[in-house]
User: Fold this.
Amino acid sequence: MIPLAYQISTTFFIAILAYLFLQFAYSAYLKSVILLDVMTIAAGFVLRIYAGVWAIDAHLNVWFLLTVTSFALFLAIGKRRSELTLLEGQAAKHRETLLHYPESLLDILTSMFANSTWLAYAIFTFFQPTIAAKSKFAGILNNFTLSVGQAKYLMITVPIVIYGVMRYLYIIYEKKQGESPERVLLTDRPLLISVLLWLTMVIGLIYYLGV
Assistant:
């Protein structure tokens, strides 16, 4: 794996090494340090994004990076909040850092990164180039009072992201879940539908509506 990574790209190779080092540091020490544990988890997500970007020699939009970072921290904090709720008095036996996380702090951090996730994504869509509708759509769209033949159509996906964030907050606080984000995504139907709808809209807007 590592020799192959070096052949693909030097920067990709560095990203792989950094990720492996980060995982070792997390397992050996950082997982027991309050705040640094969730920041390390988020850093792992960011390194994976950078590894993919460097592997194909692409450009990474800074607002997209902030969205991914905020989302990763949101999931990590939500995981800790759910673990604390589920384990209650036995939290320290399962994860030592939970003993140092007061509920009030986790609530504040969850709210903070929930807000920064959708806000960073909204700004990301706002700064994206306009999408020129194909000729068969442009005539219909330009019949409206506002000319929307060319517009930043990705912005219409923002409400879907806001709903997804609110739904996940509901899952954490009302359904008492969130300790396993991947399981939540696959088992919570409204959240799964919102993710599939978002993917469909993004793909449709970029590859079907646009030129």
In short: Residues 62-87 form the longest helix (26 residues). The CA atoms of residues 178 and 184 lie 7 Å apart. Residues 61-209 form one domain.
